[in-house]
């Protein structure tokens, strides 16, 4: 039996271990074997999914009752840690700078709690320790391998440094953005820098394109909606006295609704091709489709709010985040809710001095377990109601 103090101590140990040995997306080999052995030691059964080599899927409960899933991610980032913590990353240039060590530890804590209460579960809980979130490929890989088979609802979490420990952000509808990438190639005609009229300058054309893109958010997106367009890289030329043939730029678009996403992309193409035609350059646009928006199912919000209250924590309505999360892919297949967990952090996600307040560990495990209990109760209740009306 784990008391809450013992649970907290145990989860600190797990989180610090994971923090010390961060692994990049798709390469979570040691993390996987560590989590597997912790789950097995707690006599929690593991599910083997075809083709899945990193990440762990486990299940608690039995019988014909409903099945819900809890998901946490486990990968780290190519960031050089600057926290100075005694348990800082032992690997050069790699760090748990997004707090996925915290997610994995909290989910393991929820597994301990659910295992302890296994006989009271009104169904089964599938625990998904997902790899490759930062590359936005892990969720799709697991979905293809069948991780959502028989699952009726899916729940996930992300730490939130700007919320206080004890605050749980629960928001209906869009919570995090769709993240699309773009690469634009602008092909002109090279010439001597002193004779620009003999060529077609791709640098001037690309500059006009980038400037014109700035009007999409201000002139084409409704005041009710929001979007971000950022050009993050611009390359052209080799020296001072030659007009080059090519210019490239790339960047990202963030949106919160599918309609806005499509509209911004259309407008983006219109601007690039239109400006390109005006300058007489050839233009090629390459899209890199990222995750859709994280979009929380309205029907499940009251269930999650109730679960948060039952865990003794406070549900608040958080601001939306322009970052993206591949949890959104699960929500394309199943209803579900993604919550933000307050961790009173000193820095935002992906910062070299990112950290979480460990006091959030046991409460987060408790809230995840509570969500699983309440979700199963909700589904079991709906089944009974359906049987009564049909009978
Ligand atoms: Zn991240
Ligand atoms: Zn993250």
Automatic annotation (TrEMBL):
<feature type="domain" description="Peptidase M20 dimerisation">
    <location>
        <begin position="181"/>
        <end position="272"/>
    </location>
</feature>
<keyword id="KW-0378">Hydrolase</keyword>
<dbReference type="Pfam" id="PF07687">
    <property type="entry name" value="M20_dimer"/>
</dbReference>
<dbReference type="InterPro" id="IPR002933">
    <property type="entry name" value="Peptidase_M20"/>
</dbReference>
<protein>
    <submittedName>
        <fullName>Amidohydrolase</fullName>
        <ecNumber>3.5.1.-</ecNumber>
    </submittedName>
</protein>
<dbReference type="InterPro" id="IPR036264">
    <property type="entry name" value="Bact_exopeptidase_dim_dom"/>
</dbReference>
<dbReference type="InterPro" id="IPR011650">
    <property type="entry name" value="Peptidase_M20_dimer"/>
</dbReference>
<dbReference type="GO" id="GO:0016787">
    <property type="term" value="F:hydrolase activity"/>
</dbReference>
<dbReference type="Pfam" id="PF01546">
    <property type="entry name" value="Peptidase_M20"/>
</dbReference>
<dbReference type="InterPro" id="IPR017439">
    <property type="entry name" value="Amidohydrolase"/>
</dbReference>
């Amino acid at each position: 039996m784990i008391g809450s103090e013992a649970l907290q101590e145990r989860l600190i140990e797990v989180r610090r271990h994971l923090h010390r040995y961060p692994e990049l997306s798709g390469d979570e080999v040691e993390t996987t074997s560590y989590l597997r052995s912790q789950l097995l030691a707690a006599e929690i059964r593991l599910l083997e999914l075809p083709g899945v080599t990193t990440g762990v899927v486990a299940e608690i409960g039995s019988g014909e009752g409903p099945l819900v899933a809890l998901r946490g991610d486990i990968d780290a980032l190519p960031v050089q840690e600057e926290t100075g913590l005694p348990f800082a990353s032992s690997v050069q240039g790699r760090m748990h700078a997004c707090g996925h060590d915290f997610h994995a530890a909290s989910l393991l804590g929820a597994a301990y709690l659910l295992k302890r209460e296994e006989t009271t579960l009104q169904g089964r809980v599938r625990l998904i320790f997902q790899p490759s979130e930062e590359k936005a490929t892990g969720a799709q890989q697991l979905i293809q391998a069948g991780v959502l088979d028989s699952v009726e609802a899916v729940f996930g979490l992300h730490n939130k440094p700007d919320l206080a420990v004890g605050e749980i952000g629960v928001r209906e509808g869009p919570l995090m953005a769709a993240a699309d990438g773009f690469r634009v190639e602008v092909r002109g005609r090279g010439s001597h820098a002193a004779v620009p009229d003999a060529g077609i300058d791709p640098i001037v054309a690309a500059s006009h394109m980038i400037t014109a893109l700035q009007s999409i958010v201000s002139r084409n997106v409704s005041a009710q909606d929001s979007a971000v367009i950022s050009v993050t890289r611009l390359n052209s030329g080799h020296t001072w006295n030659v007009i080059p043939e090519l210019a490239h730029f790339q960047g990202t678009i963030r949106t919160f609704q599918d309609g806005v996403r499509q509209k911004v992309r259309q407008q983006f193409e219109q601007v690039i091709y239109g400006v390109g035609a005006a300058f007489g350059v050839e233009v090629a646009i390459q899209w890199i489709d990222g995750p859709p928006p994280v979009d929380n199912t309205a029907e499940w919000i009251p269930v999650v709010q109730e679960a948060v209250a039952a865990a003794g924590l406070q549900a608040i309505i958080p601001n939306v985040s322009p970052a993206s999360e591949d949890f959104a892919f699960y929500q394309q297949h199943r209803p579900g809710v993604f919550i933000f967990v307050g961790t009173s952090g000193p820095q935002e996600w992906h910062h070299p001095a990112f950290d979480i307040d460990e006091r959030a560990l046991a409460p987060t495990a408790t809230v995840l377990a509570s969500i699983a209990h309440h979700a199963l109760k909700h589904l079991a209740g709906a089944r009974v109601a359906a049987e009564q009306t049909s009978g």
